[in-house]
Amino acid sequence: MRRSPRSQDGFTLIEMLAATTLLAVIFGIVMNSMGQAMQAYARDEVKTRMGLMARSLLVDVSSTSLVPGFTSGQESGIDWRLECIAMSEQSGIQLLHLKLTLRHASVVQNFSTLRVQQLKSGRRS
């Protein structure tokens, strides 16, 4: 028995090229998705570190007597600036608005809180 010249076993070159192209496109899409996921993870990790640092800085300043003005510094590669604004004073009690700005590369996070502190005698304005 002879085979007809048209019957073939296997795939043609065009079928192999089409399959290879399809696999390359799928691989490219998967790699792009993984790259975006890694970038999002890195951004979230930086924001988490910044949030923890903000909490730490605000706890640190809560144990001291605050004076309206600016304070700044750098810790673990993150620049920070704390602005203390006197909102009001009544009966020896002062209301302060604390604005904390953290900056790391292109990521900027702002935090804000209020603080009440008792004025020391002789410090009323």
From TrEMBL:
It comes from the Bacteria. This is Prepilin-type N-terminal cleavage/methylation domain-containing protein. It comes from Pseudomonas brenneri.
